[in-house]
Amino acid sequence: MDELASWTRLARVPGLSGPDLTLLIEHHGSVRALLAASEPDLMATGLAARTARAIALARAAPVERDLEWLAEPGHHLVPWGSQHYPALLAEVRDAPAVLYLAGQIEVLAHPQLAIVGSRNPTAAGCANAAAFAEHLVHCGLTVTSGLALGIDAAAHRGALHAEAATIAVCACGLDQTYPTSHTRLAAEIAARGALVSEFPPGTPPLRHHFPHRNRIISGLSLGTLVVEAAPSSGSLITARLAAEQGREVFAIPGSIHSPLAKGCHRLIREGARLVESAADILIELQPLAAFTLAARGMQPLDQEPFSSGPLDKDYEILLDALGFDPAGVDLLVARTRLKAGEVASMLLILELEGLVESSPGGLYIRTRSEAVK
Questions:
Q1: Is 258 in the same domain as 149?
Q2: Cα gap 333→339, rounded to integer Å
């Protein structure tokens, strides 16, 4: 049994974490020797009888499908203890023994921020998620999320719009996409960033897989930003896991009348950082990201990524259309022929950059600093 086949078999052992493997491999000498060990020998190392039995059964597990998937270009197996296994995730008590990855394996080492939230967000929530993602990837962070409908998808698209890598952690095998409506988005993520899962090929997106998926999203990341969340939102699970893992938790507040703001407000009451601008995130994460960025030969996180360079053409068009008098989204859509969602997202980016500011009544105006340039 070769090493790769041994790891694919171990990946199918439920409840076996990476930290469990440290002692097991030290005791048995190799992954292959571990799989060949008897149940009594496995239990002698402190394993529960159920896990020891599962490892014994894994010796005969059919892994041809897994190996065929791994043979395709851009497909990788990232075992516990390997050079590509993410260092932050390795600190998590129940970190997965194996990760499957489709895409660019090097992005696992990037300093990451998780952006999560409601599957049924408001248009403003989607615009916030996309704009924060687009801004923050320019600052040196990689956006990680769960490929779900709503805020997750908006965050991934914001990063991709900036032509940056983004990581999607999936609750099923990577030979399928969930939701199926995100098949094209998943392909774009794999082309520039990575799709990641602890589940072998052929594993369906079962309900109980999603909380397991969430611990990887938070475990990969320096912090987690919650954009919109109802009190029962699964994104609050990700935030709780982040806090338990010793990571920063951020939340964007909303209207006291909005059900989708209640989850974020609860997080803030419990100690999450209230976020009004990207700087609120960058100030907290700069010291944490410094070591990772230095290892990659990159500069520290930049709080003003566009300040010294020209704006993209669409942003110039939007600023010209805005002029120096207050204007709303509808008027700017009519002037630019851009879509309303694009205009809202771009306005937030420009606001994060300090080039425009919001006014009462949903209007926007150029800042004085922009007006004198």
A1: yes
A2: 6
CB distance 237 to 230 below 8 Å:
no
Number of domains making up the chain: 3
**Closest by CA position to 99, among listed 182, 18, 218:** 18
- Give the residue carrying structure tokens 């260092």: 87
- CATH at residue 246: 3.40.50.450
- The Cα-based distances of 362 to 151, 215, 301, 318 in angstroms read 22, 37, 31, 16
Chain Cα centroid distance, residue 97:
19
pTM (2 d.p.): 0.84
Q: What are phi and psi of 369, to 5 degrees?
A: -65, -35
- The model's pLDDT over 255-287, given as tens digits with 9 standing for 90+, comes to 889 999 999 999 999 999 999 888 899 988 987
Please check whether residue 190 is in contact with residue 102, taking contact to mean a CB–CB distance below 8 angstroms: yes
Q: Does one domain contain both 137 and 285?
A: yes
Q: Which residue has the tokens 């990641």?
A: 196
**What pLDDT, in 10s, does the model give residues 207-234?**
999 999 999 999 999 999 999 999 988 9
Give CA–CA dist 325/54, Å, rounded.
Answer: 68
Q: Which domain holds residue 16?
A: 1-61
CB 161 within 8 A of CB 192: no
- For residues 115 and 35, membership in a common domain is answered with no
**CATH number of domain containing 24:** 1.10.150
Which residue's structure tokens are 């004085």?
A: 368
In this structure, what token pair is assigned to residue 283?
């100030």
CA pair distance 189, 195, nearest whole angstrom:
7
